[in-house]
Design a protein that fits this description.
The chain is of the alpha+beta class and about 130 residues long. Helices cover about 35% and strands about 35% of the residues. The longest helix is centred in the last third of the chain and has 33 residues, at about 85-120.
């Protein structure tokens, strides 16, 4: 199995995006396969990940646990990422729901309730990752 397929099939991945000064910022995310040579996840449209991707599409991924601790022996995978919203984000939601089933649907429902009280949109944005 290729390293990018391995990371896309893992339950969590450490997604690292890069600041303007080149420093990486890693976040553990749920990740799902998305078509040929791609993977995806959802996030809030005002998240740091989205802001950093506005400056550079370069990202790295590596298998990890829920707390972002790297999986021993896992490889760092170089990739590019793009931000999607609206109908394109719905395709990301479908991929995430297919992989995470009831857990993703419960998280989505919780996010909708949270967004009412915070008066902001939560997990309204998709990130599609293309492996080199």
């Amino acid at each position: 199995m290729s390293a990018h397929a391995d990371v896309a099939n893992n339950r969590y991945a450490l997604f690292t995006s890069f600041r303007k000064d080149g420093r990486g910022v890693g976040t553990a995310v749920w990740i799902a396969p998305f078509g040929d040579g791609e993977a995806c996840f959802t996030t809030g449209g005002v998240s740091g990940k989205v802001k950093r991707l506005a400056h550079t599409s370069r990202v790295t991924l590596q298998a990890c646990d829920v707390r972002g601790r790297l999986t021993p022996g896992s490889q760092v995978v170089e990739a590019t990422a793009r931000v999607v919203t609206g109908a394109d984000c719905e395709l990301v939601n479908v991929a995430m729901s297919k992989k995470y089933k009831i857990q993703f649907r419960m998280l989505s429902a919780s996010n909708k309730i949270t967004s009412i009280f915070r008066k902001s949109t939560v997990a309204d944005t998709g990130i599609i990752i293309s492996f080199h």
